[in-house]
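Retro notes, structure queue

What went well: the backlog is down to a handful. What didn't: a couple of records were mislabeled last round, so from now on we paste the full input next to the output in the thread. Example, using Vegetative incompatibility protein HET-E-1 from Cajanus cajan:
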Amino acid sequence: MSSLSRELVFLILQFLDEEKFKETVHKLEQESGFFFNMKYFEDEVHNGNWDEVERYLSGFTKVDDNRYSMKIFFEIRKQKYLEALDKHDRSKAVEILVKDLKVFATFNEELFKEITQLLTLENFSLNWQHQLCKNPRPNPDIKTLFVDHSCGQPNGARAPSPANNPLLGSLPKAGGFPPLGAHGPFQPTPAPVPTPLAGWMSNPTTVAHPAVSGGAIGLGAPSIPAALKHPRTPPTNPSVDYPSGDSDHVSKRTRPMGITDEVNLPVNVLSATFPGHGHGQTFNAPDDLPKTAMRTLNQGSSPMSMDFHPVQQTLLLVGTNVGDIALWEVGSRERLLMRNFKVWDLSACSMPFQAALVKDPGVSVNRVIWSPDGALFGIAYSRHIVQIYSYHGGDDVRQHLEIDAHIGGVNDLAFSHPNKQLCVITCGDDKTIKVWDAATGAKQYTFEGHEAPVYSVCPHYKENIQFIFSTALDGKIKAWLYDNLGSRVDYEAPGRWCTTMAYSADGTRLFSCGTSKEGESSIVEWNESEGAVKRTYQGFRKRSLGVVQFDTTKNRYLAAGDDFSIKFWDMDNIQLLTTVDADGGLPASPRIRFNKDGALLAVSANENGIKILANTDGIRLLRTLENSIYDTSRTSEAMTKPTINPIAAAAAAAATATSVALAERASSMVAITGMNGDARNMGDVKPRISEESNDKSKIWKLTEINEPSQCRSLKLPENVRVNKISRLIYTNSGNAILALASNAIHLLWKWQRSDRNSSGKATASVLPQLWQPSSGILMTNDITDSNTEDAVPCFALSKNDSYVMSASGGKISLFNMMTFKTMTTFMPPPPAATFLAFHPQDNNIIAIGMDDSSIQIYNVRVDEVKSKLKGHTKRITGLAFSHVLNVLVSSGADAQLCVWNTDGWEKQKSRFLQLPAGRTPPAQADTRVQFHQDQIRFLVVHETQLAIYEATKLECLKQWFPRDSAAPISHATFSCDSQLVYASFLDATVCVFSASNLRLRCRINPSAYLSASVSSSNVQPLVITAHPQEPNQFAVGLSDGGVHVFEPLESEGKWGVPPPIENGSTSNIAATSVGASSDEAQR
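Corresponding output:
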């Protein structure tokens, strides 16, 4: 429609509104789709006119446009259905069920079954779930239809999540309905945050505050300017904000664009857990709780604070009352590291601190915590300082920063990411909160305003705004933005003494736990938008014998240490769920900490102990690690004893217990001292080096897998239209695999929850479904007229698994992963895209490698190329971002590596691969790059070699070459914990290497997974991908269109054992240096 026609429509809308032709004006708004009247929509929702609500909304977005529109329509229809049941109108309920709700069964069959079963309930009422509530609301937050819940205080509906919101709760009518203007994506302009948050969370001069990312492509909930045909607002009419027809360029695209994971959603909707989306999960309380005591660790001094590693989830960091820190591998019960308190540089500390240390050298740890990626950890001490260590796997811990942070004690410590930069937040007895640069230690902010020592800090973000909650010993809770404008709120904490705060894992719910000076403890949930307590949990001892600590897990449970036990609550029920005493031996108020997935719980015990509690998944994990340790001990017994000192032996034994690739450390015993230079107390570890043995039968042998019975492998259901898999990836949630075939078709396999697969994660034990939406459409890329076999396929998946960006030689396509619909296409060739990568901190920025050797940095929100990087001479074949170093590493078919700074996109370094001596470099060979978990080292994959490089200096640390006569490498990848490298070869073998030294530990031969009728000369693995949470699971895509998932046997628990290093070798680098000639290193 021309701008003149659009202007005419706006004038007519204005006239109709002024003349009070209400029905006509809303009809024209809906039919034209130019203006979404938020007030009218809100009024209709408040009045419960659901038919009109849906009719009006359908003029702007359809049910299957995206997952947010789907959830909005689901809520509207569900509300109609519940009201029909409430009025005992069964026939209407059935009609709604069949006509309106059936469409959603495809995406959540279990929920649809629950809804259907409501028809069988007699005397149905919306109040049946909460007749015993203290403050029952007419429309309660219903998470599931068959579990009783408890209403909080009136108007206590929580705000939706800023990220991956599963849209919890139902849609209340007048009285309980959250103001849509505050939370919806349906506003043409940035919306205010609900008061009192509006008073402090808005900062228009420095923080852009749309409810969602508006503008051109929208991976996330598009705003109404994006999703609802780009209405715009003129300055002329005071009564109705109708847009003008010729305002800015917003409408130059009518497609919805604007990629974000920080999505704020319009209404609270029943928890419809769509597969692969959001954090909603189904749990069978209390069986999911870690209640079984599996380990007791002897720390040597009393644990004060504990934290599990965010990725290696059996790695436990501990700080004690005498200033010691320790690192435990709870699977093996071994302490990898023990450090006594020591000031690294006393001369750099303040004079008051130096004087205080001389007077009283006693120091306690107040807090230990890992950074979000597990590359750093911090310790807050009871005296002035904070120490930050960098972690490099195993027992490799290095001093990173020491900060003289506060006068008196440092009471708490947290990591945060304001302005895309990792920071350390501290608080202390000097009544201040301080923010420090985690890379340099430079102080960035000091927040003053508390009138008592600051006890805890809780950084968070909501609606693109970063902020920090802090609590002080006078019971005051304050909130701060990253500026110098002072506190934004001033709440009173229950108990008014020691209070800590925590969000649920998905960031939607805020809790605090506190103990008063009189010993009265409480856990409460807060309504952030009102600064009021929403619910108070019951079940504490009348007088707690210490300060109670708490933790949250799985967006579902709360736990606290009280009365010589651990107490658990369901977040939606104030009554105590269960109590566990961990077989006794707990102090009055034990310290507690869940690991990331909630399978393990660390609890401080009497006599300087730590107990590890586990649920079913945790028990399985620990037993798998036990098997690994047993195998490791057998390996070390088989080794010839080198001449080393006792300290080296102790260090080596400690190193045998890293979290997943446990056995790998047996191969680097001598190397540990030489690499780390860190002598340890013999009492800290259990040496495992056996007496010298010349038993030839125990000499290490490569693990060869030749039979299907020697591992777990699963061939996924095939699609007859696909004949070659070109790209392969697991979804980030770990419950699906996405493939791109050479003919531009995408395939998606999803695993469902079942009795055999309670987690719903990908596994080689259960067959997945080759999934398609009910429409039956396929995700198919745009292709050019030229031969598709010559095209270079590429794709990248958004962090929340909602969208995939993909190309097969033609235009780049953006697909909705739930509906398979093409949302948009852009960048027609030439040049054609050959590699795609999302920026780790901004989903609106993608790096696009091209077949003309350039790299384009493209902002999808504004549809603009921001930078064009030139440095390669052939097509781009690999891109990888490091959010720690703020660099992009690129690789090309020219066998060249380049490092680019992501701030200004300047080239920092470049280097060509070192090819084996005597090898003729191939004319065109893909070079892939992938960052290690530490975000500093990266894997390089080329048909002639595997290599590990360090990104800052672009130095090659290790290389591995196949023999001259061996088949070329087709692809390789790190395992999710970066302890292993999985590599596929064109002779159909798959090899597993230890990532630390690129030593081969296991080889899977074609006979183990290809049928006898298939010749390995005709079928080769072309791509390989690793599961995002299971370190020993990977999948390969084959040249015949097949995809196979591999896992080791449950009895083995891992892929082979690493070889021992040669006698007398003092470094594990020498054995794998460039041109290594041992058979082990050469396949």
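Agreed that this is the format going forward. Reviewer comment attached to the example: Residues 365 and 911 are 45 Å apart (CA to CA).
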